[in-house]
Design the sequence.
């Protein structure tokens, strides 16, 4: 196995050191690592000016396989993940067939392992077929080879309060967590975009903030009542931030995520009726964007998760109402967080590592990712050049789909290298197709 | 003007120019021979994804009176999720050489997509999209208002609607007619009051250039409107499946219907408009609909003139100021 010496890297953006990766782990740091500068059997990587982060962990990815391989496959999706600096992704359950049995989650886990780009941790469905009626075999999925710890009907809300209560209680037996897509279904029938000034003018059916907030409020109270762990997916409104803040102050065991697009974009973009901006939950107002940024800054929101949602072109190349919800995000997430949080002085790189690696790994109970950069730790790492500007072009991305909302936009920062257990999946900013395929 | 997608896109000058052109078109329509050669050799496609016999016939008549070739393409039920996509339909029409596409679609924004996605080179006219816009309806309403309230029965070229008070009553939430009218009437200087039960007013209405009232009697008494525009209310809206927006048709009529009593409470000169088709007995009684102050049938006639003006300005009139050639000179009879 190739060894790598990252020369003059800046771990978490603080100081510089050489980092030696060998045998899948961080073998040495500092002078001891620098001793490998002359070794011909070690691949030298010039990391001067680059920030070294623990490999990123996404708690919310749609890989689309099995079922919609025309939009994304586990291979293409995890390759995109590696290009975005991720070493582990949680694959959402809304596949066809649904990831609601041990068989399906094991298949997804195995396909991820065989592809070799990033560790795939399947998310199990909470209910059979995401129908919201009967609990899926949560225990079987938890005890399968896929070792499922995160359960979600994402795309649908577990709206029945009794089913939600049972799920919250049941997963305690194996330290699982229910990740809720908070969307009151009756309040959002036919909804197309955030309900407010813009929807009123555009004549598109509204998705009111209260439909998200009401479910989050109910769920944190349920979690408190039964003493369970709750995770809130893609929180998007100012009111949701307040509710989660209140819940945490009460000691309720709740975590929350925000997507890069909700940190950056608003419903004003819908005015052109371009379905690339159609997403669920919808893009909200500038006030909400400010609130989720503040919530991420003060820790109310624990993590950033992509909700990477690739779609076949025909599902976006149509009128708004006919288009699918969702946008891609794996390859731009880190840049958005840098731009919104680091470049503005709200975050250090250590904070970035926390919200994009350490904490999501902890929520998902993934033990070998999101680790400190220290000798003996698994070499799941990513090197970022924060000083480059690049223009987003879907044609040059790893994802099979082109529905990035940032098309043509100039963004900050670029992933230069990603290592999965010491093996490079990305080097010099490009995917290591030959090496990963051999592996 | 390359397309007509939304009333919000029209400046005051553009709006007045369309109304003036419509006035000239209307004059030609009182002649024995109504046809003008202006758009001979041009092709106008009526692309209707939603049933609307009235609007389609109005556009068809307008295009034919201008000597354009007209293709009617009824694609009901073929858009969302089944059959041919909007894109493929547009590419097909483009291949057939459509100079203008008049589109009616159930999805808000579909005309905008058609005009901006490169699927067609033709001019796009929005003939009603979802609950978004119906700009030619607003233009024909403005034209009708100007004739009656500014020009005292005749057209008043060059004039806008400064200071007129217009009440728009009914299902504002689902109404593209209301959205287009609020914007165009505001551009033309009129004051708009929206009257509806709170359930039928959109969240976000506070950004509209209009006042909102929940009480028709109060709005009539306080505003003394020069015109009342009644919107169609679908009976299904009261059922839980339809959204449960009001308790019963009877309660709706009592609070928001235009009947003889409310008609009598309006100022003497006030007129009554309705975009049709009417639900007699729900939003308007026969007494009001058939009264001499109702200009509902005239709206239909004005619709043809306004649509002639729009097609003319989009396809032939880009630079020419004012009247169409055929309206000034004697019309050569075609056929």
Sequence:
């Amino acid at each position: 196995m190739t060894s790598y010496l990252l020369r003059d890297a800046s771990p978490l953006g603080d100081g510089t050191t050489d980092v030696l990766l060998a045998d899948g782990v961080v073998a040495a740091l500092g002078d001891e690592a620098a001793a490998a500068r002359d070794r011909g059997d070690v691949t030298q990587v010039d990391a001067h000016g680059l920030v070294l982060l623990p490999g990123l962990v996404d708690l919310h990815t749609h890989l689309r396989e099995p079922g919609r391989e025309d939009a994304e496959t586990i291979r293409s999706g995890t390759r995109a993940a590696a290009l975005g600096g991720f070493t582990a992704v949680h694959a959402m359950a809304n596949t066809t067939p649904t990831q609601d049995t041990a068989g399906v989650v094991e298949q997804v886990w195995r396909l991820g392992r065989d592809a070799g780009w990033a560790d795939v941790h399947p998310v199990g469905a909470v209910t059979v077929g995401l129908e919201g009626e009967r609990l899926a075999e949560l225990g079987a999925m938890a005890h399968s080879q896929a070792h499922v710890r995160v359960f979600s009907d994402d795309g649908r809300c577990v709206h029945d309060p009794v089913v939600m209560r049972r799920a919250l209680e049941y997963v305690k037996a194996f330290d699982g967590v229910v990740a809720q897509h908070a969307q009151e279904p009756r309040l959002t029938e036919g909804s197309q975009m955030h309900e407010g000034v813009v929807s009123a003018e555009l004549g598109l059916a509204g998705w009111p903030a209260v439909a998200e907030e009401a479910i989050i409020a109910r769920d944190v109270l349920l979690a408190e009542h039964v003493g369970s762990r709750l995770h809130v997916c893609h929180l998007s409104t100012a009111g949701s931030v307040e509710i989660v803040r209140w819940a945490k102050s009460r000691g309720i065991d709740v975590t929350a995520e925000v997507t890069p697009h909700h940190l950056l974009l608003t419903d004003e973009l819908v005015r052109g009726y371009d379905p690339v901006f159609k997403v669920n939950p919808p893009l909200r107002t500038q006030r909400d964007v400010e609130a989720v940024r503040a919530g991420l800054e003060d820790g109310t929101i624990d993590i950033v998760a992509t909700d990477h949602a690739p779609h076949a072109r025909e599902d976006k190349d149509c009128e708004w109402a006919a288009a699918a919800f969702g946008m891609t995000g794996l390859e731009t997430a880190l840049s958005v967080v840098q731009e919104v949080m680091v470049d503005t002085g709200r975050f250090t790189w250590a904070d970035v590592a926390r919200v994009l690696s350490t904490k999501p790994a902890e929520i998902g109970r993934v033990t070998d990712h999101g680790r400190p950069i220290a000798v003996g730790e698994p070499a799941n790492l990513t090197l970022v050049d924060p000083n480059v500007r690049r223009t987003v072009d879907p044609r040059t991305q790893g994802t099979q789909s082109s529905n990035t909302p940032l098309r043509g936009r100039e963004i900050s920062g670029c992933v230069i290298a990603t290592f999965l257990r010491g093996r490079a999946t990305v080097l010099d900013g490009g995917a290591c197709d030959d090496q990963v395929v051999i592996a | 003007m390359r397309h007509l997608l939304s009333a919000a896109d029209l400046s005051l000058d553009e709006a007045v120019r369309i109304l003036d052109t419509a006035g000239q078109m209307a004059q030609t329509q009182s002649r024995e021979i109504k046809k003008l050669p202006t758009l001979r050799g041009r092709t106008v496609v009526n692309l209707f994804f939603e049933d609307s016999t009235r609007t389609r016939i109005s556009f068809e008549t307008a295009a034919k009176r201008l000597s354009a070739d007209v293709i009617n393409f009824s694609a009901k039920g073929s858009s969302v999720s089944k059959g041919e996509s909007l894109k493929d339909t547009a590419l097909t029409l483009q291949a057939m050489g459509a100079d203008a596409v008049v589109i009616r679609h159930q999805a808000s924004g579909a005309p905008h997509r058609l005009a901006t996605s490169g699927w067609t080179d033709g001019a796009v006219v929005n003939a009603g999209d979802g609950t978004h816009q119906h700009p030619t309806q607003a233009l024909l309403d403005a034209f009708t208002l100007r004739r009656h309230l500014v020009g005292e029965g005749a057209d008043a070229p060059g004039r806008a609607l400064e200071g007129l008070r217009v009440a728009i009553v009914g299902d504002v939430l689902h109404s593209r007619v209301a959205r287009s009218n609020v914007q165009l009437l505001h551009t033309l200087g009129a004051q708009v009051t929206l009257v509806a039960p709170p359930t039928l007013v959109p969240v976000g209405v506070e950004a509209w250039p209009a006042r909102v009232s929940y009480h028709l009697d109060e709005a009539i008494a306080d505003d003394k409107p020069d015109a009342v525009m009644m919107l169609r209310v679908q009976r299904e809206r009261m059922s839980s499946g339809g959204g449960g927006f009001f308790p019963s048709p009877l309660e709706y009529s009592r609070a928001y219907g235009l009947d003889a009593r409310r008609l009598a409470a309006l100022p003497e000169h006030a007129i009554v408009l309705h975009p049709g088709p009417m639900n007699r007995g729900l939003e308007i009684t026969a007494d009001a609909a058939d009264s001499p102050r109702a200009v509902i049938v005239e709206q239909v006639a004005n619709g043809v003139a306004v649509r002639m003006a729009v097609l003319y300005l989009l396809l032939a009139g880009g630079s020419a100021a004012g009247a169409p050639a055929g309206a000034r000179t004697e019309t050569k009879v075609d056929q």
Strands of chain B lie at 43-48, 69-74, 100-105, 123-129, 165-169, 191-195, 211-213, 227-230, 271-273. The interface with chain A takes residues 8, 79-81, 85-87, 105-110, 112-113, 116-117, 129-133, 176, 179, 202-208 of chain B (CB under 8 Å).
